[in-house]
Design goal:
about 160 residues, alpha+beta, Immunoglobulin-like, 2 domains, 5-stranded mixed sheet, about 30% helix, elongated, membrane, SPACA1, transmembrane, transmembrane helix
Length: about 160
Protein backbone atom coordinates (compact mmCIF):
# COMPACT_ATOMS: atom_id res chain seq x y z
CA UNK A 1 0.00 0.00 0.00
CA UNK A 2 0.92 3.67 -0.05
CA UNK A 3 1.02 6.14 2.80
CA UNK A 4 2.08 6.16 6.43
CA UNK A 5 0.49 5.16 9.70
CA UNK A 6 1.07 6.07 13.33
CA UNK A 7 1.50 3.23 15.81
CA UNK A 8 -0.07 4.33 19.11
CA UNK A 9 0.42 3.07 22.64
CA UNK A 10 -2.70 3.32 24.80
CA UNK A 11 -1.16 2.46 28.18
CA UNK A 12 2.24 2.99 29.75
CA UNK A 13 2.70 6.45 28.21
CA UNK A 14 4.82 9.07 30.01
CA UNK A 15 3.07 11.46 32.39
CA UNK A 16 -0.71 11.60 32.26
CA UNK A 17 -0.97 10.91 28.52
CA UNK A 18 -3.58 8.31 27.56
CA UNK A 19 -2.18 7.80 24.05
CA UNK A 20 1.33 8.31 22.71
CA UNK A 21 2.96 7.69 19.33
CA UNK A 22 5.52 4.88 19.39
CA UNK A 23 6.56 5.22 15.77
CA UNK A 24 5.41 6.33 12.34
CA UNK A 25 5.86 3.73 9.65
CA UNK A 26 5.29 3.43 5.93
CA UNK A 27 2.45 1.16 4.79
CA UNK A 28 4.16 -1.23 2.41
CA UNK A 29 2.75 -4.74 2.59
CA UNK A 30 -0.86 -4.34 3.65
CA UNK A 31 -3.29 -1.93 2.01
CA UNK A 32 -4.87 -1.29 5.43
CA UNK A 33 -3.14 1.74 6.92
CA UNK A 34 -5.29 1.68 10.05
CA UNK A 35 -6.84 4.76 11.62
CA UNK A 36 -6.26 8.31 10.43
CA UNK A 37 -6.28 11.75 11.98
CA UNK A 38 -8.62 14.31 10.34
CA UNK A 39 -7.16 17.38 8.56
CA UNK A 40 -9.40 19.64 10.61
CA UNK A 41 -11.78 18.86 13.41
CA UNK A 42 -14.28 21.22 14.99
CA UNK A 43 -17.35 20.79 17.14
CA UNK A 44 -19.60 20.90 14.07
CA UNK A 45 -17.71 19.20 11.20
CA UNK A 46 -14.65 17.10 10.32
CA UNK A 47 -12.48 17.00 7.15
CA UNK A 48 -10.91 13.60 6.41
CA UNK A 49 -8.31 12.82 3.73
CA UNK A 50 -7.78 9.59 1.81
CA UNK A 51 -4.26 8.25 1.42
CA UNK A 52 -2.59 9.28 -1.84
CA UNK A 53 0.68 10.34 -3.37
CA UNK A 54 0.96 13.01 -6.09
CA UNK A 55 -0.61 13.32 -8.57
CA UNK A 56 -3.89 13.06 -6.66
CA UNK A 57 -6.03 12.54 -9.80
CA UNK A 58 -4.14 9.32 -10.55
CA UNK A 59 -6.36 7.47 -8.05
CA UNK A 60 -10.05 6.72 -7.58
CA UNK A 61 -11.45 7.17 -4.06
CA UNK A 62 -14.29 5.09 -2.59
CA UNK A 63 -15.77 6.33 0.70
CA UNK A 64 -17.79 3.92 2.84
CA UNK A 65 -19.81 4.33 6.00
CA UNK A 66 -19.15 1.31 8.21
CA UNK A 67 -22.13 0.04 10.20
CA UNK A 68 -21.47 -2.71 12.78
CA UNK A 69 -22.79 -6.15 11.73
CA UNK A 70 -23.99 -4.81 8.36
CA UNK A 71 -22.63 -4.34 4.86
CA UNK A 72 -20.70 -1.09 4.38
CA UNK A 73 -22.71 1.71 2.77
CA UNK A 74 -20.83 3.20 -0.24
CA UNK A 75 -21.10 6.99 -0.34
CA UNK A 76 -21.40 9.08 -3.53
CA UNK A 77 -18.30 11.16 -2.63
CA UNK A 78 -15.36 10.28 -4.94
CA UNK A 79 -12.90 13.00 -3.93
CA UNK A 80 -9.75 12.53 -1.85
CA UNK A 81 -11.14 14.67 0.99
CA UNK A 82 -14.54 14.29 2.62
CA UNK A 83 -16.19 16.71 5.02
CA UNK A 84 -18.75 15.31 7.42
CA UNK A 85 -20.83 17.14 10.00
CA UNK A 86 -21.30 15.51 13.39
CA UNK A 87 -24.52 13.69 14.18
CA UNK A 88 -26.08 12.39 17.40
CA UNK A 89 -24.18 9.08 17.08
CA UNK A 90 -20.55 8.25 16.33
CA UNK A 91 -19.96 7.06 12.76
CA UNK A 92 -16.98 5.21 11.25
CA UNK A 93 -15.89 6.00 7.69
CA UNK A 94 -13.39 4.21 5.48
CA UNK A 95 -11.72 5.47 2.34
CA UNK A 96 -10.21 3.09 -0.18
CA UNK A 97 -7.64 4.50 -2.57
CA UNK A 98 -7.82 2.56 -5.82
CA UNK A 99 -5.51 2.45 -8.83
CA UNK A 100 -6.44 0.50 -11.97
CA UNK A 101 -9.31 -1.18 -10.11
CA UNK A 102 -7.08 -2.43 -7.25
CA UNK A 103 -7.22 -1.08 -3.70
CA UNK A 104 -3.75 0.27 -2.86
CA UNK A 105 -4.57 1.89 0.50
CA UNK A 106 -7.39 1.99 2.99
CA UNK A 107 -7.86 4.24 6.02
CA UNK A 108 -10.60 4.57 8.64
CA UNK A 109 -11.90 7.51 10.68
CA UNK A 110 -14.34 7.64 13.59
CA UNK A 111 -16.38 10.84 13.66
CA UNK A 112 -17.60 11.26 17.22
CA UNK A 113 -21.03 12.64 18.07
CA UNK A 114 -21.36 16.28 19.17
CA UNK A 115 -21.93 15.30 22.81
CA UNK A 116 -18.86 13.01 22.85
CA UNK A 117 -16.70 15.77 21.35
CA UNK A 118 -17.87 18.29 23.95
CA UNK A 119 -17.01 15.81 26.72
CA UNK A 120 -13.57 15.11 25.19
CA UNK A 121 -12.84 18.82 24.76
CA UNK A 122 -13.81 19.61 28.37
CA UNK A 123 -11.53 16.78 29.62
CA UNK A 124 -8.72 18.12 27.42
CA UNK A 125 -9.20 21.63 28.85
CA UNK A 126 -9.07 20.26 32.42
CA UNK A 127 -5.83 18.40 31.63
CA UNK A 128 -4.29 21.50 30.03
CA UNK A 129 -5.26 23.65 33.03
CA UNK A 130 -3.68 21.19 35.49
CA UNK A 131 -0.50 21.11 33.36
CA UNK A 132 -0.46 24.89 33.22
CA UNK A 133 -0.78 25.09 37.02
CA UNK A 134 2.14 22.65 37.47
CA UNK A 135 4.23 24.58 34.95
CA UNK A 136 3.46 27.89 36.68
CA UNK A 137 4.49 26.45 40.06
CA UNK A 138 7.78 25.20 38.61
CA UNK A 139 8.49 28.59 36.99
CA UNK A 140 7.80 30.46 40.25
CA UNK A 141 10.09 28.06 42.14
CA UNK A 142 12.89 28.58 39.59
CA UNK A 143 12.46 32.37 39.68
CA UNK A 144 12.56 32.53 43.51
CA UNK A 145 15.57 30.17 43.63
CA UNK A 146 17.36 32.31 41.01
CA UNK A 147 16.73 35.52 42.96
CA UNK A 148 17.95 33.96 46.22
CA UNK A 149 21.08 32.61 44.50
CA UNK A 150 21.79 35.98 42.85
CA UNK A 151 21.38 37.88 46.11
CA UNK A 152 23.46 35.23 47.89
CA UNK A 153 26.33 35.76 45.44
CA UNK A 154 26.15 39.55 44.97
CA UNK A 155 26.11 40.53 48.68
CA UNK A 156 29.20 38.48 49.63
CA UNK A 157 31.04 39.93 46.59
CA UNK A 158 30.17 43.50 47.68
CA UNK A 159 31.38 42.75 51.25
CA UNK A 160 34.61 41.26 49.85
CA UNK A 161 35.23 44.37 47.73
CA UNK A 162 34.55 46.72 50.65
Amino acid sequence: GIGIREVLLTSGCPGTETKCIIRVEECQASVDCGWGIPISEGLACVKMPCIFIPPENRFKYVWKMLVPNKTAHILPNDSSIMEVCRDTHSVTFQCETQENGNTVASIKYTVYAKTEMQTKMSKRLETEQSRRTKTDAILVFCLVTGIIMTVGVIFPMIFMIL
